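Note on ligand handling. Small-molecule inputs were canonicalized before submission; formal charges were left as drawn, and no protonation-state enumeration was performed. Where a ligand contained multiple stereocentres, the stereochemistry in the source SMILES was retained. For flavin-adenine dinucleotide, this procedure yielded the string shown in the input block below.
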Amino acid sequence: MDEPVVDRVAAVEQLAARRFDLLVIGGGIVGAGIAEAATAHGLDVALVDRADFASATSSGSSKLIHGGLRYLQMGDVRLVREAHQERRYLMNVVAPHLVERLPFLFPLYDDGPHRPIVVRTGVLLYSALARARLNGRISEQRALRLVPQLKTTGLHSSALYADARTNDGRLTIENALAAAGRGAVVLNYAAVTVLHGDGASVRVDGETIRVRAERVVNATGPWLDHLRRLEDETAQPSIRLSKGVHVLVDGGGDWGAAVTIPQSKVRVSFAIPWEGMLLLGTTDTLHEGAPDEATVTDDDVRTILDEAATAVGGIGPMRASFHGLRVLPGGPGSTANARRETVFMRGPSGMLSVAGGKLTTYRRIALDALEQLGVRNLDRAPRPLPGAVGLAKVDWPLELDPATRRHLLHLYGSRAADVVRPALDDPGLLEPLAAGRPDLRAQERYAREHELAVHDEDVLRRRTTAWLHGDGSLGSGHVSEADAADPAARS
Ligand SMILES: Cc1cc2nc3c(=O)[nH]c(=O)nc-3n(C[C@H](O)[C@H](O)[C@H](O)COP(=O)(O)OP(=O)(O)OC[C@H]3O[C@@H](n4cnc5c(N)ncnc54)[C@H](O)[C@@H]3O)c2cc1C
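Structure output:
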């Protein structure tokens, strides 16, 4: 894989000059995954996002790469089996540094919504579909060793199963970078404003560019119908949106498992040790306004903390919160019951819209999209993302403490050495990027020079974990060289 084109001026020029096989609109995991797969199949691709890559749903998920225990309950055995297979591919081949196995504890309380035998049978079937060692009932002592904050009053028993967690923002950006490494033009802060029969008009850095492409994919997630209406103003609504909020609190450092907390017969919430903090959530409420109008409310936060407190004691102070919008097929019924399948739609000028699905199955969604676009001889085998190979042989250019090395390896895989190398000449790059987090200033530089970060928030929130402590400011009035060079970068 080549070094990707990450020079913004060059990318804008190429966007206007080339004629592409495929224009992908939307740089969430679905659009970035399609761009990655399309370039691997030899297509000349442009990928644009109106904001930063992964700035919408794809950094607002529960971070789980999972079969989905509750889909089993909804009778979706095929979806669970496929998702488990994808989990194995991601953990073993595609991004072993970013996708880590994580045990899940399912506590069953006397006054809980489920009969213990039903849950234990479900967990056994789930583990069989996962081709995992069969899990099931574990002792209270073992449960407490895994989750020291577990509440034991009224605890009838606990079941254990395994899934995986990831850093969703980085997984998405790595897909975009992989596409760029194979020659795709990949540009954030580039919004499609008009669709034409042979491409689109894209608003970028205050100018409108005409992008020409043979085929167009609409991977705009919550904005899907907005784009469909750009193609056909009479297009009827095809999706519903459900808001899911998460809260980050201190803690989780001594946890060996996440907790799946049953809230009703159809809904669970999670407490997940993630990036050195505890991630709690999520909610599931119908969102009827425009995607940009969704916010985290006090009620959302209260609900999450109350629900977590049914199984977890001594919850630490809240540091940050965020929301995401699930894209569900339109139609009546509760959002919690709605199926999480992917739907493909063709517009009158041929644009392919991709709605719904899961982070976990993004590779499969991308391949199915290519099939819909008529790409032949699809190679469905998993391919490593940048940094996924050579994890055991990283040649560190300088001394770093083991915790920092682990953190960098997790985020960048074998490219971690490249991230810190400039610190040989500029030791200030080894200073922390934000209080209370393991990220280094070297990561900021790498994000701006190699990972298409434009704004401070792109660095803090999606390319590093600096923001998670709720303290992720680069300092008031901080204007980086990149921002200074690019007036559009200051917002
Ligand atoms: C609360 C919640 C929890 C979840 N948890 C999990 C989980 O644990 N595991 C799992 O597998 N899945 C999970 N999911 C599902 C998963 O997060 C989504 O399926 C996935 O992120 C959707 O990605 P996407 O690319 O379709 O959409 P998005 O990530 O929303 O990307 C769409 C992109 O389109 C861009 N865009 C919009 N309009 C334009 C335009 N005019 N021009 C250019 N770009 C445009 C936007 O800026 C955005 O970046 C969860 C979802 C939610 C909401």
